[in-house]
Structure formats: structure tokens, C-alpha cells
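Researcher: Sequence of Aminoglycoside phosphotransferase follows. Predict its structure.
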Amino acid sequence: MTAFNLLAHDEQMRILHDLALRALALYPLPPGTTAKLLNLSENATYRIDAPDGRRWALRVHRDGYQSDMAIASELAWAVDLRRSGIAVTPNPIHGRDGALVQSVPDARMASPRRVVLFDWETGAEPGITDNLTHSFAALGEIAARMHVHARRWQRPQWFTRHTWNFDTALGEDRPHWGRWRDGIGMDGEKRRLFQRTVDLIGRRLAAYGMGRERFGLIHSDLRLANLLIDGSTVKVIDFDDCGFSWYMYDAATPVSFYEHEPQVPELIEHWKAGYRKVLPLSQEDEAEIPTFVMLRRILLVAWIASHIEAEFPKSLGAGYTDGTLPLCEDYMRRFG
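Model: Prediction complete. C-alpha cells:
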């Protein structure tokens, strides 16, 4: 049998769709409920429609990225954020056996896939061409509220999530999203510029430190695709990458894939204004936001290479690597 990750993309999608349909039997859903692929990124997300008009979202987890306990930890935090009124987050649905995290085996896969079903959240994803002033200010305020909650929340003893530090993001020893050195279109000259930039990021973050006031539990992926705008409400979805990192990293992720756009500095100012409604920002915090934007950009170069089988990373490819070069040069001029 051919390993799943060696199959053609269309065949992988067919198998994942079959698995998603079989997963529906694990939940109290009516007959005739259907599944339609919405997004393929770290995970595969399906829109689930019942004949009576009810709707849910099913997340099929990527093999080997998160453990059952890590997924349960993610859900525990997101549920408490919603229950506490801190942020509007998707509500997970218990399976017929009472568990939130379900497991679906498939003979064509090396191991069962974990799945989670959520209530459907209304709203639209903002685009970079939209008027994002309000969205970024609201997002900064929500991020600060989440940071306050994370500092005070009594986590379950079994709680476990990734740590996103310099080594696990840009290091050489098994970074979570792969090595930036393996970025699409990399060559010797590009690697040398990237390396100088990465070294500078490392020095600045070492000086900034990982004290409790600067480093803790965060969403880690607060980009536009993980927001839903529903009237005046900004909803936060997809906590799959949440973990322990610098709080100011949450200021960088909203501009993911658009770091080069001219409006980014203004949008970050609106994010900071929203954040200050809840928490103060020190001069040191503000000074390192460009470092976190640069870290995120290089981290995404690695992510694209390690997820190149999916359509969105494939569409970015070497162009994203090349587009990072002027950002590296600008960062080195400003901070080197």
C-alpha cells in the first residue's frame, strides 16, 4: 500500500473526504448530513450541512502534529475564553461517547486521524484590501484580553501545548514547521542574508527575554484567515497553533503573508491602540514588534516548504521566499 503522503493530491483529498463522512457517524447528526471541504492548511476543515439547515465545521487533524492531550488542551482554553466572555470562539461538540476529540481509523493511513466538530460561526473573513482599522483595533483589544486570561487561568494539570521560542521556530533542531533553510527557491546567497537576519532576531530576543510578563499562553496564529467579522463582533477561530510564546508575537501574526504591504505599520498602530485599552505596552514591547513580524515571515517560509502539497502554500512558493529578501534587508538596516 502506498503511504498516504506519497499519494497524488486528488487521491489524498478523496481519502480525507471519505474519512470526514465516516467521522459524522461519531456525532448525533441527522441522516443525510453532508461534508464539503472548506480549507486545507495544517488540517482539513469541512463544512457540515444537515438537511434541516443546521451547520457545523469539522476539523480533520494533520497526522502527527498534535496529540490527543494537546488538542484537548486547546479546546479547554478556547472553551474557557468563550465561557468567560473574553472572546467569541467556536463551540466544540461532544461525540456520541461524550468525548470532544474523536479518532477515525482508515486502512489507507498509517494511524487514525483525530477530528473535532464545532458549531458553525457566522461572519466573514476580512481581506487585506478591506478597511481593517476597526478590525485591527478590536483584534489588539481581544489579544490583550486573552493575555490577561492566560496569566490568570488555572490550567488543568494535564494541559500541554507547543512552545514557540526561537529554537522551535527558526532553530536547526526539529523546528515545528520545518527549517527555513529548506524554503522554496533558496540558494546560497539568499541563505546568507536569511542567516544574518535570523542571527539578529536571536540576539534581540535573547536580550528581550522570556519573563512571565512577556512570555505565556497565546493564540500564536491570529492572522486574517482565523478571524470572522460578524457585524461589530470579531470572532477568533482555529486555536490549533496556540501555545507558549511571546505575547507580542500575537501582534505579528495578523499580518501573515502580507508583511510587505505598505499599510502594515498603520495596521499595527491600530492593533497597539486596541491592546492599550486593556494592558500597557512597554517601550521594549513596542520596539520588538518588528522583530516578531520578521520572525513570523521567516517561519512562514519554512511552513510553505513543509506544506507544499497544499494549494495555498504551493501558490506562494518561491515568490514568498524572494519577497522576504527586501524585508530582511530593511530589518538589518533598522536594527543591525
